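Interim report, section 4.2 (structural modelling).
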Amino acid sequence: MLNKNHFVSDNTTKRRLQTSSVTVVVSLSLVLFMLALVGWVLLNAKKLSEYYKENIGFQVYLKESASNADVEKLRKELDAAAYVKSAVYKSKEEAAEEMKKETGDDFIAFLGYNPLPVSINVNLRSEYANADSVAWIEKEITADRNVREVVYQKVLVDNVNDNARKIGLIVGFFAFLLIFISLALINNTIRLSIYSKRFLIRTMYLVGATQAFIRKPFIIRGVKIGVVAAIVAFAMLAGFIFIVTRYVPELLVIQEENWLLLLFLGILILGVIISGFSSGLAVRRYLRLKAEDLYF
Amino acid sequence: MEDNVVIQLKDVSVFQGHNMVINDLQLEIKKGEFVYLIGKTGSGKSSLLKTLYGELPLTKGTGTVVGYDLNALQRKDIPFLRRKLGIVFQDFQLLSDRSVNENLHFVMKATGWKDENEIQQKIADVLTKVGLANKGTKKPYELSGGEQQRVSIARALVNDPELILADEPTGNLDPETSQEIMNLLLDISKSGRSVLFATHDILLYKRFPSRTLTCEQGKITDSAYKVTV
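Predicted structure of the assembly:
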Protein backbone atom coordinates (compact mmCIF):
# COMPACT_ATOMS: atom_id res chain seq x y z
CA MET A 1 0.00 0.00 0.00
CA LEU A 2 2.73 2.41 0.94
CA ASN A 3 4.85 1.35 -1.96
CA LYS A 4 2.42 2.32 -4.65
CA ASN A 5 4.68 5.14 -5.78
CA HIS A 6 7.55 2.83 -6.62
CA PHE A 7 7.49 3.60 -10.30
CA VAL A 8 6.44 7.23 -10.02
CA SER A 9 9.16 9.84 -9.97
CA ASP A 10 9.36 12.50 -7.29
CA ASN A 11 8.28 15.26 -9.62
CA THR A 12 5.20 13.39 -10.73
CA THR A 13 4.13 12.91 -7.13
CA LYS A 14 4.66 16.57 -6.44
CA ARG A 15 2.72 17.56 -9.52
CA ARG A 16 -0.10 15.25 -8.54
CA LEU A 17 -0.36 16.82 -5.09
CA GLN A 18 -0.30 20.31 -6.59
CA THR A 19 -3.03 19.36 -9.03
CA SER A 20 -5.29 18.43 -6.16
CA SER A 21 -4.77 21.92 -4.69
CA VAL A 22 -5.46 23.50 -8.05
CA THR A 23 -8.76 21.64 -8.33
CA VAL A 24 -9.87 22.96 -4.96
CA VAL A 25 -8.76 26.50 -5.82
CA VAL A 26 -10.67 26.41 -9.10
CA SER A 27 -13.89 25.14 -7.49
CA LEU A 28 -13.63 27.53 -4.59
CA SER A 29 -12.88 30.56 -6.75
CA LEU A 30 -15.82 29.79 -9.04
CA VAL A 31 -18.16 29.55 -6.08
CA LEU A 32 -16.77 32.73 -4.54
CA PHE A 33 -17.12 34.48 -7.91
CA MET A 34 -20.81 33.54 -7.99
CA LEU A 35 -21.27 34.84 -4.47
CA ALA A 36 -19.39 38.05 -5.26
CA LEU A 37 -21.52 38.53 -8.34
CA VAL A 38 -24.73 38.18 -6.34
CA GLY A 39 -23.30 40.55 -3.75
CA TRP A 40 -22.45 43.04 -6.46
CA VAL A 41 -25.94 42.78 -7.95
CA LEU A 42 -27.47 43.30 -4.51
CA LEU A 43 -25.31 46.35 -3.85
CA ASN A 44 -26.19 47.75 -7.25
CA ALA A 45 -29.88 47.14 -6.71
CA LYS A 46 -29.68 48.95 -3.40
CA LYS A 47 -27.85 51.89 -4.95
CA LEU A 48 -30.25 51.91 -7.87
CA SER A 49 -33.34 52.02 -5.68
CA GLU A 50 -31.77 54.76 -3.55
CA TYR A 51 -30.99 56.68 -6.69
CA TYR A 52 -34.59 56.49 -7.85
CA LYS A 53 -36.03 57.28 -4.47
CA GLU A 54 -33.91 60.38 -4.14
CA ASN A 55 -35.05 61.51 -7.55
CA ILE A 56 -38.66 61.42 -6.50
CA GLY A 57 -39.10 64.92 -5.25
CA PHE A 58 -42.03 66.98 -4.16
CA GLN A 59 -42.98 70.52 -4.87
CA VAL A 60 -43.66 73.10 -2.22
CA TYR A 61 -45.88 75.83 -3.71
CA LEU A 62 -45.74 79.13 -1.96
CA LYS A 63 -48.39 81.77 -1.39
CA GLU A 64 -48.42 84.89 -3.55
CA SER A 65 -47.98 86.92 -0.39
CA ALA A 66 -44.59 85.38 0.38
CA SER A 67 -41.71 87.76 -0.11
CA ASN A 68 -38.47 86.77 -1.77
CA ALA A 69 -36.74 86.85 1.58
CA ASP A 70 -39.35 84.50 3.07
CA VAL A 71 -38.92 82.08 0.20
CA GLU A 72 -35.15 82.11 0.46
CA LYS A 73 -35.39 81.60 4.22
CA LEU A 74 -37.68 78.58 3.80
CA ARG A 75 -35.43 77.13 1.10
CA LYS A 76 -32.43 77.42 3.37
CA GLU A 77 -34.32 75.78 6.23
CA LEU A 78 -35.36 72.92 4.01
CA ASP A 79 -31.88 72.52 2.61
CA ALA A 80 -30.51 72.20 6.14
CA ALA A 81 -33.14 69.65 7.26
CA ALA A 82 -31.92 66.12 7.91
CA TYR A 83 -34.34 64.52 5.51
CA VAL A 84 -33.61 66.75 2.52
CA LYS A 85 -31.02 65.94 -0.09
CA SER A 86 -31.54 69.09 -2.10
CA ALA A 87 -33.96 71.99 -2.21
CA VAL A 88 -34.05 74.05 -5.39
CA TYR A 89 -35.86 77.32 -5.89
CA LYS A 90 -38.07 77.71 -8.95
CA SER A 91 -39.32 81.18 -9.89
CA LYS A 92 -42.65 81.95 -11.52
CA GLU A 93 -40.87 82.57 -14.83
CA GLU A 94 -39.05 79.24 -14.75
CA ALA A 95 -42.30 77.44 -13.94
CA ALA A 96 -44.05 79.16 -16.83
CA GLU A 97 -41.22 78.32 -19.19
CA GLU A 98 -41.44 74.66 -18.19
CA MET A 99 -45.21 74.61 -18.54
CA LYS A 100 -44.92 76.19 -21.98
CA LYS A 101 -42.54 73.51 -23.08
CA GLU A 102 -44.77 70.75 -21.78
CA THR A 103 -48.06 71.97 -23.19
CA GLY A 104 -46.80 73.86 -26.21
CA ASP A 105 -49.26 76.70 -25.46
CA ASP A 106 -48.27 80.23 -24.70
CA PHE A 107 -50.81 80.45 -21.89
CA ILE A 108 -49.42 83.71 -20.47
CA ALA A 109 -50.22 85.52 -23.65
CA PHE A 110 -53.66 83.95 -23.56
CA LEU A 111 -54.38 84.75 -19.92
CA GLY A 112 -52.50 87.99 -19.78
CA TYR A 113 -50.74 87.07 -16.53
CA ASN A 114 -48.68 84.23 -15.00
CA PRO A 115 -50.84 82.21 -12.59
CA LEU A 116 -48.07 79.86 -11.53
CA PRO A 117 -46.77 80.22 -8.00
CA VAL A 118 -43.19 80.29 -6.83
CA SER A 119 -42.10 76.80 -5.75
CA ILE A 120 -39.27 74.87 -4.16
CA ASN A 121 -38.36 71.46 -5.54
CA VAL A 122 -37.33 69.16 -2.71
CA ASN A 123 -35.53 65.84 -3.14
CA LEU A 124 -35.54 63.61 -0.07
CA ARG A 125 -32.76 61.39 1.21
CA SER A 126 -33.49 57.76 0.41
CA GLU A 127 -34.01 56.83 4.08
CA TYR A 128 -36.97 59.23 4.26
CA ALA A 129 -38.43 58.35 0.88
CA ASN A 130 -41.37 56.32 2.17
CA ALA A 131 -45.03 57.13 2.67
CA ASP A 132 -44.85 57.50 6.47
CA SER A 133 -41.99 59.93 6.50
CA VAL A 134 -43.35 61.92 3.60
CA ALA A 135 -46.65 62.30 5.49
CA TRP A 136 -45.10 64.01 8.50
CA ILE A 137 -42.67 65.98 6.37
CA GLU A 138 -45.62 67.26 4.41
CA LYS A 139 -47.40 68.26 7.62
CA GLU A 140 -44.35 70.05 8.91
CA ILE A 141 -43.86 72.04 5.74
CA THR A 142 -47.53 72.88 5.30
CA ALA A 143 -47.46 74.41 8.79
CA ASP A 144 -45.28 77.22 7.46
CA ARG A 145 -47.44 80.28 6.93
CA ASN A 146 -45.97 81.03 3.49
CA VAL A 147 -46.74 77.56 2.07
CA ARG A 148 -49.82 77.13 -0.03
CA GLU A 149 -49.57 73.46 -0.92
CA VAL A 150 -47.24 70.46 -0.92
CA VAL A 151 -47.53 68.12 -3.90
CA TYR A 152 -45.85 64.77 -4.13
CA GLN A 153 -46.40 61.52 -5.98
CA LYS A 154 -47.45 59.23 -3.22
CA VAL A 155 -48.13 56.23 -5.44
CA LEU A 156 -44.72 56.44 -7.03
CA VAL A 157 -42.94 56.49 -3.69
CA ASP A 158 -44.88 53.47 -2.48
CA ASN A 159 -44.29 51.61 -5.70
CA VAL A 160 -40.55 52.08 -5.68
CA ASN A 161 -40.38 50.98 -2.05
CA ASP A 162 -42.55 47.98 -2.63
CA ASN A 163 -40.58 46.81 -5.65
CA ALA A 164 -37.25 47.35 -3.95
CA ARG A 165 -38.45 45.28 -1.01
CA LYS A 166 -39.66 42.44 -3.22
CA ILE A 167 -36.54 42.33 -5.36
CA GLY A 168 -34.35 42.51 -2.27
CA LEU A 169 -36.20 39.59 -0.71
CA ILE A 170 -35.93 37.40 -3.80
CA VAL A 171 -32.26 38.12 -4.50
CA GLY A 172 -31.48 37.80 -0.80
CA PHE A 173 -33.15 34.42 -0.68
CA PHE A 174 -31.13 33.21 -3.65
CA ALA A 175 -27.93 34.56 -2.16
CA PHE A 176 -28.66 32.66 1.01
CA LEU A 177 -29.41 29.50 -0.94
CA LEU A 178 -26.22 29.96 -2.94
CA ILE A 179 -24.14 30.33 0.22
CA PHE A 180 -25.65 27.13 1.56
CA ILE A 181 -25.04 25.19 -1.66
CA SER A 182 -21.49 26.43 -1.98
CA LEU A 183 -20.73 25.50 1.62
CA ALA A 184 -21.82 21.93 0.95
CA LEU A 185 -19.94 21.72 -2.38
CA ILE A 186 -16.68 23.15 -1.09
CA ASN A 187 -16.85 21.04 2.03
CA ASN A 188 -17.09 17.93 -0.17
CA THR A 189 -14.33 19.02 -2.52
CA ILE A 190 -11.95 19.67 0.36
CA ARG A 191 -12.87 16.47 2.11
CA LEU A 192 -12.05 14.55 -1.08
CA SER A 193 -8.71 16.31 -1.40
CA ILE A 194 -7.85 15.25 2.14
CA TYR A 195 -9.26 11.75 1.66
CA SER A 196 -6.07 10.79 -0.18
CA LYS A 197 -4.07 11.66 2.93
CA ARG A 198 -6.14 9.63 5.35
CA PHE A 199 -3.46 7.00 5.95
CA LEU A 200 -0.85 9.67 6.60
CA ILE A 201 -3.20 11.27 9.10
CA ARG A 202 -3.70 7.87 10.71
CA THR A 203 0.03 7.22 10.97
CA MET A 204 0.68 10.61 12.49
CA TYR A 205 -1.91 9.86 15.15
CA LEU A 206 -0.46 6.41 15.81
CA VAL A 207 3.02 7.75 16.53
CA GLY A 208 1.73 10.10 19.21
CA ALA A 209 0.97 13.38 17.45
CA THR A 210 -1.89 15.31 19.02
CA GLN A 211 -4.95 16.00 16.88
CA ALA A 212 -4.26 19.73 16.92
CA PHE A 213 -0.71 19.16 15.67
CA ILE A 214 -1.93 16.98 12.80
CA ARG A 215 -4.69 19.39 11.87
CA LYS A 216 -2.54 22.53 11.82
CA PRO A 217 -0.77 22.11 8.44
CA PHE A 218 -4.03 21.10 6.78
CA ILE A 219 -5.83 24.16 8.12
CA ILE A 220 -2.96 26.43 7.05
CA ARG A 221 -3.15 24.93 3.57
CA GLY A 222 -6.92 25.47 3.60
CA VAL A 223 -6.51 29.13 4.55
CA LYS A 224 -3.94 29.64 1.78
CA ILE A 225 -6.31 28.08 -0.73
CA GLY A 226 -9.09 30.36 0.53
CA VAL A 227 -6.94 33.47 0.04
CA VAL A 228 -5.84 32.49 -3.48
CA ALA A 229 -9.40 31.58 -4.46
CA ALA A 230 -10.75 34.91 -3.16
CA ILE A 231 -8.15 36.82 -5.19
CA VAL A 232 -8.95 34.83 -8.33
CA ALA A 233 -12.71 35.30 -7.76
CA PHE A 234 -12.27 39.04 -7.32
CA ALA A 235 -10.14 39.32 -10.45
CA MET A 236 -12.95 37.56 -12.31
CA LEU A 237 -15.50 39.97 -10.83
CA ALA A 238 -13.34 42.95 -11.80
CA GLY A 239 -13.12 41.62 -15.36
CA PHE A 240 -16.86 41.07 -15.39
CA ILE A 241 -17.60 44.61 -14.17
CA PHE A 242 -15.15 46.01 -16.71
CA ILE A 243 -16.90 44.26 -19.60
CA VAL A 244 -20.44 44.96 -18.37
CA THR A 245 -19.84 48.67 -17.84
CA ARG A 246 -18.61 48.98 -21.43
CA TYR A 247 -22.07 47.97 -22.62
CA VAL A 248 -24.14 49.43 -19.78
CA PRO A 249 -22.25 52.60 -18.82
CA GLU A 250 -24.99 53.67 -16.37
CA LEU A 251 -23.76 51.04 -13.94
CA LEU A 252 -20.47 52.87 -13.61
CA VAL A 253 -22.27 55.91 -12.19
CA ILE A 254 -23.33 53.94 -9.18
CA GLN A 255 -19.98 52.21 -8.60
CA GLU A 256 -18.32 52.98 -5.35
CA GLU A 257 -14.84 51.80 -4.48
CA ASN A 258 -15.66 51.39 -0.80
CA TRP A 259 -18.41 48.94 -1.63
CA LEU A 260 -16.09 46.92 -3.86
CA LEU A 261 -13.48 46.79 -1.11
CA LEU A 262 -16.12 45.59 1.31
CA LEU A 263 -17.23 42.97 -1.18
CA PHE A 264 -13.64 41.77 -1.60
CA LEU A 265 -13.18 41.53 2.17
CA GLY A 266 -16.45 39.63 2.37
CA ILE A 267 -15.47 36.93 -0.11
CA LEU A 268 -11.94 36.78 1.33
CA ILE A 269 -13.28 36.10 4.80
CA LEU A 270 -15.89 33.68 3.48
CA GLY A 271 -13.30 31.80 1.38
CA VAL A 272 -10.81 31.51 4.21
CA ILE A 273 -13.43 30.40 6.70
CA ILE A 274 -15.06 27.83 4.40
CA SER A 275 -11.75 26.37 3.26
CA GLY A 276 -9.95 26.40 6.62
CA PHE A 277 -12.93 25.12 8.54
CA SER A 278 -13.72 22.33 6.08
CA SER A 279 -10.09 21.20 6.11
CA GLY A 280 -10.06 21.01 9.89
CA LEU A 281 -13.35 19.13 9.92
CA ALA A 282 -12.20 16.63 7.29
CA VAL A 283 -9.00 15.80 9.17
CA ARG A 284 -10.97 15.44 12.37
CA ARG A 285 -13.29 13.02 10.64
CA TYR A 286 -10.42 10.79 9.53
CA LEU A 287 -8.88 10.91 12.98
CA ARG A 288 -12.07 9.63 14.52
CA LEU A 289 -12.65 6.81 12.07
CA LYS A 290 -11.51 3.34 12.99
CA ALA A 291 -8.55 2.01 11.01
CA GLU A 292 -10.70 -0.55 9.20
CA ASP A 293 -13.11 2.13 7.98
CA LEU A 294 -10.30 4.01 6.24
CA TYR A 295 -10.14 1.43 3.49
CA PHE A 296 -13.49 2.42 2.07
CA MET B 1 1.61 -0.97 40.81
CA GLU B 2 5.25 -1.72 41.09
CA ASP B 3 7.66 0.60 39.39
CA ASN B 4 9.11 -1.96 37.07
CA VAL B 5 5.80 -3.27 35.74
CA VAL B 6 4.92 -1.82 32.32
CA ILE B 7 1.74 -3.74 31.55
CA GLN B 8 -0.76 -4.94 34.07
CA LEU B 9 -4.09 -6.42 33.01
CA LYS B 10 -6.69 -7.96 35.32
CA ASP B 11 -9.79 -9.91 34.19
CA VAL B 12 -9.56 -8.26 30.78
CA SER B 13 -11.75 -9.22 27.83
CA VAL B 14 -10.86 -8.05 24.35
CA PHE B 15 -13.49 -7.44 21.70
CA GLN B 16 -13.40 -7.36 17.94
CA GLY B 17 -16.51 -5.40 17.10
CA HIS B 18 -19.08 -7.16 19.27
CA ASN B 19 -17.31 -10.51 19.39
CA MET B 20 -15.24 -11.35 22.40
CA VAL B 21 -11.91 -12.73 21.16
CA ILE B 22 -9.95 -12.96 24.39
CA ASN B 23 -11.56 -13.69 27.72
CA ASP B 24 -10.44 -13.35 31.31
CA LEU B 25 -6.88 -12.26 30.64
CA GLN B 26 -4.41 -11.77 33.50
CA LEU B 27 -1.10 -10.32 32.41
CA GLU B 28 1.88 -8.62 33.93
CA ILE B 29 4.95 -7.64 31.93
CA LYS B 30 8.02 -6.28 33.68
CA LYS B 31 10.65 -3.88 32.50
CA GLY B 32 13.18 -5.41 30.09
CA GLU B 33 11.11 -8.49 29.34
CA PHE B 34 10.83 -9.89 25.83
CA VAL B 35 7.43 -11.53 25.43
CA TYR B 36 5.99 -13.30 22.43
CA LEU B 37 2.30 -13.10 21.65
CA ILE B 38 1.46 -15.92 19.30
CA GLY B 39 -1.73 -17.17 17.76
CA LYS B 40 -3.46 -17.60 14.44
CA THR B 41 -4.73 -14.70 12.43
CA GLY B 42 -8.00 -13.55 13.91
CA SER B 43 -7.21 -14.98 17.35
CA GLY B 44 -7.19 -11.47 18.82
CA LYS B 45 -3.48 -10.61 18.94
CA SER B 46 -3.94 -7.37 17.06
CA SER B 47 -7.05 -6.46 19.03
CA LEU B 48 -5.14 -6.96 22.27
CA LEU B 49 -2.33 -4.71 21.04
CA LYS B 50 -4.86 -2.13 19.85
CA THR B 51 -6.41 -2.13 23.29
CA LEU B 52 -2.96 -1.53 24.75
CA TYR B 53 -2.28 1.53 22.59
CA GLY B 54 -5.71 3.05 22.93
CA GLU B 55 -7.14 2.26 19.52
CA LEU B 56 -9.82 0.05 21.09
CA PRO B 57 -11.43 0.96 24.40
CA LEU B 58 -11.01 -1.32 27.38
CA THR B 59 -14.57 -2.18 28.28
CA LYS B 60 -14.18 -5.15 30.58
CA GLY B 61 -11.57 -5.62 33.28
CA THR B 62 -8.89 -3.22 34.47
CA GLY B 63 -5.55 -2.39 32.92
CA THR B 64 -2.56 -0.12 33.21
CA VAL B 65 0.01 0.49 30.48
CA VAL B 66 3.21 2.47 31.17
CA GLY B 67 1.40 4.26 33.97
CA TYR B 68 -1.78 5.06 32.02
CA ASP B 69 -5.02 3.69 33.40
CA LEU B 70 -6.76 2.25 30.33
CA ASN B 71 -10.18 2.47 31.95
CA ALA B 72 -9.85 6.19 32.49
CA LEU B 73 -8.25 6.91 29.12
CA GLN B 74 -9.65 10.03 27.42
CA ARG B 75 -9.34 10.86 23.74
CA LYS B 76 -6.95 13.66 24.56
CA ASP B 77 -4.69 11.33 26.56
CA ILE B 78 -4.17 8.90 23.68
CA PRO B 79 -1.33 10.80 21.94
CA PHE B 80 0.55 11.04 25.24
CA LEU B 81 0.13 7.33 25.97
CA ARG B 82 1.49 6.59 22.49
CA ARG B 83 4.56 8.74 23.10
CA LYS B 84 5.56 6.39 25.91
CA LEU B 85 5.12 3.40 23.65
CA GLY B 86 7.00 2.41 20.56
CA ILE B 87 4.68 0.81 18.04
CA VAL B 88 5.99 -1.24 15.14
CA PHE B 89 3.52 -2.33 12.48
CA GLN B 90 3.44 -5.12 9.97
CA ASP B 91 2.91 -2.61 7.17
CA PHE B 92 5.52 -0.17 8.58
CA GLN B 93 3.15 2.86 8.54
CA LEU B 94 5.84 5.26 7.40
CA LEU B 95 4.88 8.64 6.01
CA SER B 96 5.32 7.85 2.34
CA ASP B 97 5.56 11.45 1.19
CA ARG B 98 8.83 12.29 2.98
CA SER B 99 12.34 10.99 3.58
CA VAL B 100 13.50 8.81 6.46
CA ASN B 101 14.98 11.81 8.26
CA GLU B 102 11.78 13.77 7.79
CA ASN B 103 9.73 10.84 9.04
CA LEU B 104 11.67 10.82 12.28
CA HIS B 105 11.76 14.61 12.38
CA PHE B 106 7.98 14.76 12.09
CA VAL B 107 7.46 12.35 14.95
CA MET B 108 9.83 14.28 17.18
CA LYS B 109 8.23 17.63 16.34
CA ALA B 110 4.82 16.09 16.93
CA THR B 111 5.84 14.73 20.29
CA GLY B 112 7.22 17.95 21.65
CA TRP B 113 10.91 18.11 20.68
CA LYS B 114 12.01 21.71 20.24
CA ASP B 115 15.80 21.90 19.94
CA GLU B 116 16.87 21.28 16.34
CA ASN B 117 20.38 20.12 17.34
CA GLU B 118 19.00 17.59 19.78
CA ILE B 119 16.63 16.33 17.10
CA GLN B 120 19.40 15.84 14.55
CA GLN B 121 21.54 14.17 17.20
CA LYS B 122 18.77 11.77 18.15
CA ILE B 123 17.93 10.95 14.52
CA ALA B 124 21.56 10.05 13.82
CA ASP B 125 21.60 8.08 17.05
CA VAL B 126 18.55 5.90 16.37
CA LEU B 127 19.40 5.39 12.70
CA THR B 128 22.83 4.14 13.71
CA LYS B 129 21.19 1.83 16.23
CA VAL B 130 19.12 0.18 13.52
CA GLY B 131 21.99 0.17 11.01
CA LEU B 132 20.65 2.78 8.59
CA ALA B 133 23.03 5.63 9.38
CA ASN B 134 23.55 6.51 5.70
CA LYS B 135 19.96 6.12 4.46
CA GLY B 136 18.47 9.20 6.09
CA THR B 137 17.73 11.05 2.86
CA LYS B 138 15.96 8.14 1.16
CA LYS B 139 12.21 8.04 0.72
CA PRO B 140 10.47 4.98 2.19
CA TYR B 141 9.68 3.57 -1.26
CA GLU B 142 13.36 3.63 -2.14
CA LEU B 143 14.12 1.19 0.69
CA SER B 144 13.68 -2.55 0.94
CA GLY B 145 11.03 -4.01 3.24
CA GLY B 146 13.58 -4.86 5.92
CA GLU B 147 15.01 -1.37 5.77
CA GLN B 148 11.56 0.18 6.04
CA GLN B 149 10.88 -1.94 9.10
CA ARG B 150 14.15 -0.75 10.61
CA VAL B 151 13.05 2.82 10.02
CA SER B 152 9.81 2.14 11.82
CA ILE B 153 11.76 0.60 14.71
CA ALA B 154 14.02 3.65 14.74
CA ARG B 155 10.88 5.76 14.88
CA ALA B 156 9.58 3.71 17.80
CA LEU B 157 12.84 4.40 19.63
CA VAL B 158 13.05 8.19 19.38
CA ASN B 159 11.10 8.85 22.55
CA ASP B 160 12.94 6.18 24.60
CA PRO B 161 9.78 4.19 25.25
CA GLU B 162 9.49 1.78 28.16
CA LEU B 163 7.50 -0.61 26.03
CA ILE B 164 7.64 -1.60 22.39
CA LEU B 165 4.55 -3.15 20.85
CA ALA B 166 5.37 -5.01 17.67
CA ASP B 167 2.40 -6.19 15.62
CA GLU B 168 3.74 -8.92 13.29
CA PRO B 169 6.78 -6.82 12.39
CA THR B 170 8.26 -9.65 10.35
CA GLY B 171 5.03 -10.60 8.63
CA ASN B 172 6.05 -8.98 5.36
CA LEU B 173 9.73 -9.95 5.43
CA ASP B 174 11.78 -12.89 4.25
CA PRO B 175 13.26 -15.25 6.89
CA GLU B 176 16.74 -13.76 6.87
CA THR B 177 15.51 -10.21 7.19
CA SER B 178 13.15 -11.41 9.91
CA GLN B 179 16.09 -12.67 11.91
CA GLU B 180 17.87 -9.36 11.59
CA ILE B 181 14.78 -7.56 12.87
CA MET B 182 14.50 -10.11 15.71
CA ASN B 183 18.08 -9.54 16.73
CA LEU B 184 17.50 -5.83 16.70
CA LEU B 185 14.43 -6.10 18.95
CA LEU B 186 16.21 -8.51 21.31
CA ASP B 187 19.08 -6.04 21.63
CA ILE B 188 16.59 -3.33 22.43
CA SER B 189 14.98 -5.42 25.15
CA LYS B 190 18.41 -6.10 26.64
CA SER B 191 18.90 -2.36 27.02
CA GLY B 192 16.01 -2.35 29.52
CA ARG B 193 12.92 -1.86 27.39
CA SER B 194 10.08 -4.35 27.32
CA VAL B 195 9.04 -5.79 24.00
CA LEU B 196 5.67 -7.40 23.28
CA PHE B 197 6.12 -9.19 19.99
CA ALA B 198 3.03 -10.50 18.19
CA THR B 199 3.75 -13.10 15.53
CA HIS B 200 2.53 -16.31 13.98
CA ASP B 201 6.01 -17.27 12.83
CA ILE B 202 6.70 -20.47 14.77
CA LEU B 203 10.27 -20.80 13.52
CA LEU B 204 11.13 -17.44 14.93
CA TYR B 205 10.17 -18.10 18.51
CA LYS B 206 11.64 -21.57 18.44
CA ARG B 207 14.92 -20.03 17.41
CA PHE B 208 14.88 -17.25 19.97
CA PRO B 209 13.00 -18.75 22.92
CA SER B 210 11.49 -16.38 25.46
CA ARG B 211 8.35 -15.96 27.54
CA THR B 212 5.37 -16.71 25.31
CA LEU B 213 1.69 -15.84 25.47
CA THR B 214 -0.36 -18.20 23.34
CA CYS B 215 -3.69 -17.00 22.06
CA GLU B 216 -6.09 -19.85 21.46
CA GLN B 217 -9.87 -20.21 21.49
CA GLY B 218 -10.42 -17.05 23.46
CA LYS B 219 -7.84 -17.88 26.13
CA ILE B 220 -4.27 -16.79 26.61
CA THR B 221 -1.82 -19.27 28.06
CA ASP B 222 1.26 -17.75 29.63
CA SER B 223 4.45 -19.85 29.44
CA ALA B 224 5.69 -18.08 32.58
CA TYR B 225 3.10 -19.96 34.63
CA LYS B 226 3.63 -23.31 33.01
CA VAL B 227 6.11 -25.88 34.12
CA THR B 228 9.05 -25.24 31.84
CA VAL B 229 10.51 -28.08 29.89
